């Protein structure tokens, strides 16, 4: 049974969050249903949760 560690710190309630995990950190900006994420490697991602259970995600790596 694997163990996972993740710690989320809210910087601005409902808007900006900083998350720490075993592989580094990530910064999330935006409300719960539509946000942009930046990780320690410079990779970016955008996610939007649409009505009816649909989700749109676009990721972009620095490679």
Automatic annotation (TrEMBL):
Residues 3-56 form the DUF4236 domain. It holds the Pfam family DUF4236. Residues 40-63 are annotated as: Disordered. InterPro entries: DUF4236 (IPR025330). This is DUF4236 domain-containing protein. It comes from Streptomyces glaucosporus.
């Amino acid at each position: 049974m694997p163990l996972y560690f993740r710690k989320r710190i809210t910087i601005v309630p409902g808007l900006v969050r900083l998350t720490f995990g075993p592989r580094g950190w990530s910064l999330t900006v935006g409300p719960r249903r539509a946000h942009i994420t930046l990780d320690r490697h410079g990779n970016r991602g955008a996610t939007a949760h649409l009505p009816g259970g649909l989700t749109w995600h676009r990721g972009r790596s620095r490679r």
